[in-house]
Amino acid sequence: MKIYFSRNPNPRLAVAVARFLKMDVEFEFAAPMAPGQSERFSSLNPNLLLPILEHSGRTLWETDAIACCFSRRVGSNFWRTDDHEPEMIRWISWAKENFVKACDVVHWERGTKLRYGIGTCDERMIEEGLGQFHKAAGILESQLADRSWLVGETISFADFRMATFLPFNDAARLPIDRYPAIKRWADRLDEIDAWRDPFSGLEAPDLPPIPSPS
Q1: SS3 of 63, please?
Q2: How far does the chain reach from its first CA to its final CA, in angstroms?
Q3: β-strands 2-5, 26-29: how paired?
Q4: Closest CA to 16 of 67, 52, 59, 60
């Protein structure tokens, strides 16, 4: 099995899952949209996006599907298969349309656009994203107020998915500290080596730096 990855949010998430589950998988840093790479990767993922899992002569793309595959491979309940599965899927779905989506909007403006020279920050979009963030964070804060993890008594993929953009908060500067339950949960995730530094020991060039304001 081989997983193609980069340091961007979704590939980072897939690598974190693989390291957390101690998967026997080969890691290869990739850049499908780099000059001369599209022909190689279009057959692996027509979207030319990462992560991509190559195994048994087939490929699997989309982070959540890869996480499910990894968890099943090792027989872990990280991807719930018991009566908690609907609840886990509920939080994954909600995250991607609410909390993660809001984080992405702000990170795109404050991080990705500047990092890759795509353009300047759109303050209107940042304001809109922060509004979405506070609305979603209020719901997440309530869920985490009296529990350690989102689903049941142990960590699940729902926690990793919900926190997709938190490792990039040095760029996004989302006000996580205003939400003590979320902050405790995020700190608990950071105690996990595979989450805190999923690229440890891997050949993985750093992301381009974000230019300082002129």
Answers
A1: helix
A2: 45
A3: parallel
A4: 67
Residue 102 CA to residue 138 CA, distance in Å, equals: 13
Burial class of 212 by CB neighbour count within 10 A (0 to 12, 13 to 18, 19+): exposed
106 within 8 A of 130, measured Cβ to Cβ: yes
Q: Which two tokens stand for residue 187?
A: 């700190």
The first and second tokens of residue 72, run together, are: 């099943």
Rounded distance between C-alpha atoms, residue 150 and residue 201, angstroms: 30
Neighbours of 145 (CB within 10 A): 12
d(CA 10, CA 202): 17
User: Alpha carbon of 7 to those of 49, 116, 146, 147, 158: distances in Å?
Assistant: 12, 13, 33, 30, 20
Cα 63 from Cα 66, distance rounded (Å): 5
Q: Is the pTM of this model over 0.90?
A: yes
Backbone angles phi, psi at 158, to 5 degrees: -60, -35
Handedness of CA 162, 167, 172, 178 (dihedral sign): positive
d(CA 205, CA 5): 11
Q: Write the pLDDT tens digit of every residue in 137-193.
A: 999 999 999 999 999 999 999 999 999 999 999 999 999 999 999 999 999 999 999
